[in-house]
């Protein structure tokens, strides 16, 4: 027969689990919104749809609100529950993840603003560079990282780090092409610089997605794997 104290402790533990699951669900909802922000910003860059561009810019306020509210919720859980080490890792992972998600949202807004400037100018002299492929890879990285967080699965972390190298290579290739365009035709300088800012935003989004996948390794294994390199990461996630 359970005593009143043990029943009360069980209730507190269950409520704490509910709190943590609520945080996880809200992170995933924020991640879904940020992913859509990036996809819509890149679509608007290609289409020149000004209504969609303005919607992406306006929606950044919603992303920011998610971060503020989730940060407050984490502080509340810490103060109320005084979590043990493993649960504190979850809360710390949430705090770190929402920071990176908010920054991805900022980069999506920057892409939309650059798209607005590009389509307000002369698009007939717009340099042709492939930003779609690195952006698509960044979206996949973000999706995989969020899925890893949802399932507490470290197996894709090394894969995300490897894909970040592809995004970096795409940024460097775009930068070389854009510099060539600007040197050959000074009329392209303004729009080429806008595209360069977009390429840089995509590269940073890849970095933030990689960060999120690394936080999952920290959450599951209790090990900080930032800055250890791809080969060491692969050994870490392959280990027991």
Give a summary of the structure in a few sentences.
The chain is mainly α and 240 residues long. It has seven helices and no strands. It starts with a helix and ends with a helix.
Task: Report the end-to-end length measured between terminal Cα atoms.
Answer: 38 Å
Question: What gross morphology would you assign?
Answer: elongated
- Number of helical stretches of at least 4 residues: 7
What is the CATH homologous superfamily assignment?
A: Phosphate transport system protein phou homolog 2, domain 2
Instruction: Give the beta-strand count.
Output: 0
Runs with pLDDT <50, length 5+? none
Strand content: under 5%
Q: Which CATH class?
A: Mainly Alpha
The major beta sheet can be summarized as: none
H-E string: HHHHHHH
Give the helix proportion (percent range). Answer: over 70%
Based on the coordinates given, report the CATH architecture. Answer: Up-down Bundle
Structural class: mainly alpha
Average pLDDT confidence is: 87
- The name of the CATH topology is Methane Monooxygenase Hydroxylase, Chain G, domain 1
Radius of gyration: 21 Å
**How many domain units?**
1
């Amino acid at each position: 027969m359970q005593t009143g104290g043990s029943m009360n402790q069980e209730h507190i533990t269950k409520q704490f689990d509910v709190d943590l699951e609520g945080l996880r669900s809200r992170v995933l909802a924020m991640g879904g919104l940020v992913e859509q922000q990036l996809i819509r910003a890149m679509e608007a860059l290609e289409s020149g749809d000004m209504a969609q561009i303005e919607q992406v810019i306006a929606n950044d306020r919603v992303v920011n609100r998610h971060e503020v509210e989730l940060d407050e919720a984490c502080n509340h859980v810490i103060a109320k529950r005084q979590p043990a080490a493993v649960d504190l890792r979850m809360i710390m992972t949430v705090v770190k993840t929402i920071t990176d998600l908010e920054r991805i949202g900022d980069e999506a807004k920057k892409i939309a603003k650059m798209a607005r400037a590009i389509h307000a100018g002369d698009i007939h002299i717009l340099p042709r560079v492939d930003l779609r492929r690195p952006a698509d890879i960044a979206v996949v990285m973000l999706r995989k990282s969020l899925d890893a967080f949802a399932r507490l699965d470290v197996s894709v972390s090394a894969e995300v780090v490897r894909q970040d190298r592809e995004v970096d290579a795409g940024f460097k290739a775009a930068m070389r092409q854009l510099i060539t365009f600007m040197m050959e035709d000074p009329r392209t300088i303004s729009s080429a610089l806008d595209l360069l800012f977009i390429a840089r935003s995509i590269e940073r989004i890849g970095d933030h997605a990689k960060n999120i996948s690394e936080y999952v390794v920290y959450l599951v294994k209790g090990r900080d794997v930032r800055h250890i390199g791809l080969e060491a990461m692969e050994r870490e996630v392959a280990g027991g």
